[in-house]
Amino acid sequence: MANGNGRVGLKERLSQAGDHIRSSEVWTSIFRPGSPFRYGYTDSPRNRSYVIMNNVLYHLHPVKVKRHAVRLSYTLCLGGLSFFLFILLTITGIFLMFYYRPTSPQAYLDIQALSTDVAFGQLVRNMHRWGAHLMVLTVFLHMARVFYHGAYKPPREFNWVVGIVLLLLTLLLSFTGYLLPWDQLALWAVTVGSNMGAYAPVVGDQVSFALIGGVQITPDTLLRWYVLHVLFLPFIIVIFMAVHFWRVRKDGGISGPL
Amino acid sequence: MAGLPEHLLRRSAEARAKAEGRDVEEILAEMKGEAPAPEAAAPAPVAPAQPAATPAATAPAPASATGGVRDIATESAATGVPEALLQRAMEGRARKEGKPVPTMAAAPAATAAPVAAAPAPAAAAPPAIPDGVTTQRLLTVVKAGAIQQVKSSPADKVNVWPHLLAIEFVALMVVMAGLIIFSVFVDAPLLEFANFNEQPNPSKAPWYFLGLQELLSYFDPQVAGVIIPTFGVIGLAMIPYVDKNPAVRPSDRKLAIMIFSFFLFGAAILTTYGSFFRGPGFNFSFPWVDGIFFDF
Ligand code: HEM
Question: What is the pTM of this model?
């Protein structure tokens, strides 16, 4: 314990303090057995199982997966990345909500201020926007990879259908967000987009009326789409994601190998 | 019962003695195989009213090894399934086959089964379970496999930690880094304030709808805006129920892959076309001649 001149060195003190903290009751209560952060963790097969089993991650991952399932070339991580992007969009989106008011013309002014007055405002807005486009892309590609692997075949038929719902919700999330900057691009892209829906027979007019809150887009539409975008659709998509992930595991884990 | 520790045997014997109201030592000897344990003797004390010859227990089991008449007690002794369950199964079978339901206490004459002999037990069976003994009832046996895949064929598996989590972490970091770097250098568009009186020319939907918008210039809005997307989504959702081919190897599902790829490439081409090759008035234009009319 002591160094050459008989005194306890800084390094030892630090490591003792570290051990002390990591064996404290508070620390032990946070990190469950098997956690790599727990005092006395060793890399053993049992602890490798415990890392997952005693962790909130157990809701997403089993303890073990088929060997081919961890090959990057199988899933290309596309489903996982879609989920990760969703988390990222939630985080950046919450940041944006602090600075945004869904009224006209305030919405536009707020977005403008974001790029000039707010620290990291422009960066976070960029991440939110590019992340959203990327998510639409990864979800599409995820669907394609699932198709080309035949991973929708029994018993995974229903999870494919859940996936289609997720695809539609992703598109809706992106589309409702598109209006929020309240600039020329937003207004007219959404006008063109929602005009397409208005052609639906019988219910077309009602659908577009309910969606945009009138016969044409007005500042009221802004509030409506804001609520859909930040609350309603995320709420729904999270539920479907939960079902989706649950089914992946209940259907016997990832499909394959080919 | 070879190999069982003595104290476990004893505990089990005591429990059974308590349940059956017999002597512990006797049962213990029986368990160890020292005393002959007559097959029919075991259930007899449990339900005195239904001795080994219970006539009602005549399932016309054609597949049965004994070739016909079997009674509940011996069957129970042989298989270890509780008598009550056997009785219930038999009743169920009789009901299904439209025969009168045999009951333990009822007159066996009612059953048309080939009864060997033995008169009907006159009294109803007294409760077979002595006081103070808790029993459990088997409600039903649920077969697995409906939702859950429980096939446990040996598979080559690896621990999620560290193998999968490490990969996921790296993938996550790569995408995150890429997104941040891209966002540092490329700003999200923000045009002029929304103006209801001034429609930009051309006006384009978000890129993922541009394939549809492109279709709008060929077809009636009803077709391009409603019928095609509706059928597209329904068709997508129905793929697993239409494609009945169980194969997953690409070489065994050429048709499915061809059809899907056709639509995928079609959508990609239409989207690219609508995004980059449509200028003012949504008329055809070369992006390198007239410029790009596209915003993310
Ligand atoms: C928000 C959108 C979505 C998210 C976050 C998501 C997430 C995931 C994840 C994490 C997996 C595990 C395997 C992998 O990463 O590939 C998975 C599997 C799967 N997904 Fe998705 N998904 C989404 C959309 C879709 C869509 C649009 C479809 C199809 C129409 C789909 C169908 C499936 C199927 C069938 C599986 C099982 C694949 C297998 O066992 O190999 N998902 N999804």
Answer: 0.72
